[in-house]
Design a protein that fits this description.
Layout: H1 5-14, E1 19-23, H2 29-40, E2 44-48, H3 50-56, H4 58-72, E3 76-83, H5 86-95, E4 99-102, H6 109-123, E5 129-134, E6 138-141, E7 144-146, H7 156-166, E8 170-173, E9 178-179, H8 190-199, E10 204-206, H9 214-222, E11 225-230, H10 232-246, H11 256-278
Parallel strand pairs: 1-2, 1-11, 2-3, 3-4, 4-5, 5-8, 6-9, 8-10, 10-11
Antiparallel strand pairs: 6-7
Helix pairs in contact: 2-4, 2-11, 5-6, 6-7, 7-8, 10-11
The structure holds 1,3-dihydroxyacetonephosphate.
């Protein structure tokens, strides 16, 4: 069923697992992600940047997610990732997104709280979940970069104050991960995550999931991570596969010959991630 973030994270919490939140860059990536979740029998979060939502069309994304959720018989959430403007968030909610992230992490705490409250006020009318971020995650995403100097780990006391004043559904934490890190893996501060978890009682979100070591996945889930964002690894998989294929296929061959193998390759990566997030063994 097409549902919101709060609902799937509540179920994940009861099972001590994380739900995979996979960034899609096109409509064609959706079947790769949703079929993988179906094969693994888990809920899934599809997330798009504001740029992808505008390019594909918000309503197109909503319609396809709804149809695929029904066909696959699994819970699917459509989430707007890293939106910084009220108007972008309103546009997604009005089109039918079931979850949004307001990223006010670069703002002073007071302003972040005020803007997040404003978004929650609007979102609750539509039963839309809201994720927010405190601290600054490193790396680059959709052209927005945070340099090593700008990175700031989430402060547990600030997090407690923020959660109390806003009533958000999930909190994205900065604990050493970086967006877009795919050539190396990162060192996570488990100590910082532990302190945040002690200070706040709500589902935590990890960004920059591509750069997280497989062996760290279970550790962070045991410390309260319930939403696991992965984007770059899917993008790199798709692009590598399509480079390989487009160089070889005749110009007049059906596009399907190139697109379907990319879908299969991404499906395999997503299934591998979901197996880790299920936290079974
Ligand atoms: P990666 O692209 O590094 O996996 O991060 C995804 C993400 O955090 C989306 O917000």
């Amino acid at each position: 069923m097409y549902t919101n973030l709060k609902r799937v994270l509540k179920k994940a919490d009861a099972l001590n697992m994380a739900v995979g939140a996979f960034n899609t860059h096109s409509l064609e990536m959706l079947p790769a992600i949703i079929s993988a979740a179906k094969e693994q029998g888990t809920p899934v979060i599809i997330q798009t940047s504001v740029g992808t939502a505008q390019y594909v069309g918000h309503k197109n994304l909503v319609a396809v997610c709804k149809t695929m959720a029904e066909e696959a018989g699994i819970d699917v959430v459509l989430h707007l990732d890293h939106a910084k403007d009220y108007e972008d968030i309103k546009e997604a909610i009005d089109a039918g997104y079931s979850s949004v992230m307001f990223d006010g992490s670069s703002l002073p705490l007071k302003e972040n709280i005020l803007k997040t409250q404003q978004i929650i006020e609007y979102a609750k009318n539509f039963n839309v979940s809201v994720e927010a971020e405190l601290g600054i995650v490193g790396g680059t995403e959709d052209g927005i970069a945070a340099s090593a100097d700008e990175v700031r780990y989430t402060d547990p006391q600030e997090a407690a104050e923020f959660v109390k004043q806003t009533g958000i559904d999930a909190l994205a934490v900065a604990i050493g991960t970086n967006h877009g890190q795919y050539k190396s893996k990162t060192n996570i501060s488990f100590e910082c995550l532990k302190e945040i978890k002690k200070a706040v009682d709500l589902p935590l979100v990890i960004h920059g999931g591509t750069g997280v070591k497989d062996e760290d996945v279970r550790k962070v889930i045991d410390l309260g991570i319930r939403k696991f964002n992965v984007g770059t690894e899917l993008l790199v998989t798709w692009t590598k596969k399509s480079k390989e294929l487009f160089g070889e296929t005749p110009e007049n061959a059906s596009l399907r010959n190139n697109v379907v193998p990319c879908i299969r390759a991404v499906n395999q990566v997503v299934q591998k991630k979901i197996k880790l997030f299920k936290n079974l063994d």
